[in-house]
Coenzyme A biosynthesis bifunctional protein CoaBC
Amino acid sequence: MDKPKVVLGVSGGIAAYKACELLRRLTESGHDVRVVPTDSALQFVGAATWSALSGNPVSTEVWDSVHEVPHVRIGQHADLVIVAPATADMLAKAAHGLADDLLTNTLLTARCPVVFAPAMHTEMWEHPATQENVATLRRRGALVIDPAVGRLTGVDTGKGRFPDPVEIFEFARRVLARGERAAVQDLAGRHVVISAGGTREPLDPVRFLGNRSSGKQGYALARTAVARGARVTLLSANAALPDPAGVDVVHVGTAVELREAVIRAATGADVVVMAAAVADFRPETYATGKIKKKDGHEPEPIFLVRNPDILAEISADRSRPGQVVVGFAAETDDVLANGRKKLARKGCDLLVVNEVGERKTFGSEENEAVLLGADGSETPVPYGPKEVLSDTIWDVVARLVSAGDTLEQERIYNGQ
């Protein structure tokens, strides 16, 4: 099979050097990458570097190899175009259809998915002109990844940092995997809230009650939602994973902290997905000093109290009409029967049920599950990558959100 053809556009920002890592991951994973830098980008990383890492010639001018008509052919033949980093200048040119070099010409001729990974100072990112340009590109179907928050050039810190190249690669991989469906941004304009990982309930300063959840399924849900156009807030409970590109991440520790974060983030959200493994109980008391082992004495018993049932609470008290709530159920036996009981008890719209155990699901890159709908539907998802399960979940959720919009419009029309 032909290798997927990827165009990596590089514009003139200091983060251009980080694009080398993105290029390496793309080539090593079997993609045919053509790097198209701007003249300004070559001030940061030279053409020889891009050519050596990609194995393809590098040019910035439409006049090079003119008999091959590169300003048209490169974009026409691409399966994906990524501009990383995308400066404020590049976003403006792309939004207004300017074509003054090879990269901007390529953007005009590309009919494949186009991804922009912006990197700039906070003031530039937040400027109304840049925000309007981003909105224009998104409205036309381009995928613009929100920049990360962190250290910028010099001593400045804020939103505008180039996202982790590994996460941009994962994002690109999801876009390519969706193929023609990548152009269908069925979550565009939607705000989704996702919890991931496992809560920890402290016993003393060094010990806690926890679980085996890695957070990988929740993070896969976040990546796939961004690739489908959603604005994503990820509530991460003790997951030792890099922040997904384009996702607002809030880190929490305990079930009580997660509840507070969910209620705060869910206000006005279109979808809430509770993928985190939330501890059912927490210690009644917290020892301010390390609990010591005393020779000849049995340990003192640890009394537990119930944690709040976050899924049941947000299902019963939706923050807006039509809000869709999705829960997860990890079961060890009678999976479907227990799942149906939990679905009825929690009151959510969709419950993702999967069998777990010491060698199943936890920490794995794969998963299998059955999606149980409140309408009685069952959608089995066979064993495979967690991103595939995530996309199936979003397929169902997108239909539920659309149906909710229709009901709300009818309600408003009837004056209810």
Observations:
- Residues 191-287+301-413 form a domain with the Rossmann fold fold (CATH 3.40.50.10300).
- The chain has two domains: 5-183, 191-287+301-413.
